[in-house]
Amino acid sequence: MVSRAQRTPFAVWWWTVDRLMLGALGALMLAGIILLLAASSPVATKLGLDPFHFVNRQIFYLIPAIAILLGTSLLSPRQIRRLALVVFAISMVLLAATLVFGTEIKGARRWIVLLGVNIQPSEFVKPAFVILIAWLFGESARKPEMPANIFALLLFGSVVTLLMMQPDFGQTMLIAMVWGALFFMSGMRVIWVGGLAGAALLGLGAAYYAVPHVARRLNRFMDPSSGDTFQIDNAVESFVRGGWLGQGPGEGTVKRILPDSHADFIFAVAAEEFGIVLCLIVVGLFAFIVIRALTRALRAEDPFSRYAASGLAILFGAQSAINMSVNLHLIPAKGMTLPFISYGGSSLLSLAYGMGMVLALTRERPQAEQFGRRGGAVPAARAA
């Protein structure tokens, strides 16, 4: 046991970090390995790979992901801002380079190969973007004269433009949701609400008429008879076949017929083999992490920490909800991983970075450290 009286860096971290949230994240990582063992073998065999190829790769990425999660949770808010600026700048450069040098898969350029490793830059843009937006809105709360809304809009526009050029509408929608949520939390004016809602509708309409891929997915969702719904139909059927307790490990059939059963549709594999009970446990873990993060974020005195932790929690929760909703055919299909469970190195490392920042921002700190002041001085407005 670590004593509270110890003042070592590890002891200070251990008694200030949210250990329950840390445990829930560890449970999701463990669940991801177990579900990959169940879901990935048929996919690997079809591709002529070792049956445990995807499991081994996931464990390979999981080791640095845990290091990133724990290392990031040690950072101060000031260090988080500085690191996010570096990560965002590098990711934006890679995002632009992907449009030219990236590998085209299914009509989109989202991946770039660096030193023999496939990287999806958009995954790393997301958490860094949330931090920078939170910093802008936090500064606006402390300095109303600062034109943070304009800067936030320009930053949002630059990210969305690059994502739409790939195109990647799933990530675009996710970033737009988080940006809008933080904008709302910062106290936007009514005129901004109408303007943003109108812009969102215009953007959706333009995407529908200008991009055939988007139109086909929306049409299939509204009218299944208008196109091929093979993957969605089988994913939904797997929940019926699995029942409450599932058919048992290795007894499922959906993983043998879906090409993305180890990634986008791993939740359907979990439902068929382990049952709805396990799915509800997974949903409960996601809900616990999001609610826990939002609750602790609300206690933060520093506006930046409050907005940043909330934004990252919303990002995590929204991505989880989108993936599970697609598996249940509640929303149109989108290529988005289930956090810490689906296969994917870029996704795993990015999520570890984002949730490590959540753990760091929600640690119990003195006010002076929250505000990033030297000498431990608390702002006069807070001390009064």
UniProtKB/TrEMBL annotation:
Catalytic activity: [GlcNAc-(1->4)-Mur2Ac(oyl-L-Ala-gamma-D-Glu-L-Lys-D-Ala-D-Ala)](n)-di-trans,octa-cis-undecaprenyl diphosphate + beta-D-GlcNAc-(1->4)-Mur2Ac(oyl-L-Ala-gamma-D-Glu-L-Lys-D-Ala-D-Ala)-di-trans,octa-cis-undecaprenyl diphosphate = [GlcNAc-(1->4)-Mur2Ac(oyl-L-Ala-gamma-D-Glu-L-Lys-D-Ala-D-Ala)](n+1)-di-trans,octa-cis-undecaprenyl diphosphate + di-trans,octa-cis-undecaprenyl diphosphate + H(+)
Documented EC number(s): 2.4.99.28
Subcellular location: Cell membrane
One Gene Ontology molecular-function label: lipid-linked peptidoglycan transporter activity
Broadest EC class assigned to this enzyme: transferase
GO cellular component, one term: cell division site
InterPro entries: FtsW, FtsW/RodA
UniProt similarity note: Belongs to the SEDS family. FtsW subfamily.
Protein name: Probable peptidoglycan glycosyltransferase FtsW
